Task: inverse folding
């Protein structure tokens, strides 16, 4: 009995998501969430890349198995983070404690959901507290004040927490 090779489908990466996932626009215009295959480094996949993926089960849209060679070489950042050109610079990843000197970091006092915090982009609120980051602090999902912005993620060690709670 011979195994049937899985069908590869093409798409374009439109967004880098948390936890090594990617939003991919398929040829028919639909969006799926995909993960990178074991042999593919996360730094090899960037926004705008054409990729081949194997359609997935209901838990996710597919698994990226190959990044297609670009027809015209796009300009990529020479960032230490690899090919993901839309990543923030290292300076933008560190909170300035002088901005709120009396506020502790999220690593010093864990914020609760709904609590006010301060990140590199300004005042925000904590929408979720997630697992541990590489530096041992927790991963926080935040939403900037002003409402319409989508949530984003930051390490608790890089967020200042309002001192009035706790």
Result:
């Amino acid at each position: 009995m011979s195994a049937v090779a899985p069908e590869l489908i093409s798409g374009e990466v439109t967004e880098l998501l948390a936890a090594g996932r990617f939003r991919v626009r398929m040829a028919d215009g639909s969006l799926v969430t995909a993960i990178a295959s074991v042999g593919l480094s996360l730094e090899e996949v960037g926004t705008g890349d054409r990729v081949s993926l194997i359609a997935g089960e209901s838990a996710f849209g597919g698994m990226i198995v190959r990044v297609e060679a670009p027809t015209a070489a796009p300009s990529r950042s020479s960032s230490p983070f690899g090919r993901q050109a839309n990543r923030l610079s290292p300076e933008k990843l560190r909170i300035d404690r002088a901005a709120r000197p009396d506020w502790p970091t999220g690593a010093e006092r864990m914020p609760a959901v709904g609590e006010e915090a301060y990140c590199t982009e300004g005042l925000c609120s904590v929408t979720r507290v997630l697992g541990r980051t590489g530096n041992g602090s927790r991963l926080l999902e935040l939403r900037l004040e002003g409402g319409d912005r989508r949530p984003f993620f930051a390490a608790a060690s890089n967020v200042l927490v309002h001192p009035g709670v706790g």
Remarks:
- The chain has one helix and ten strands.
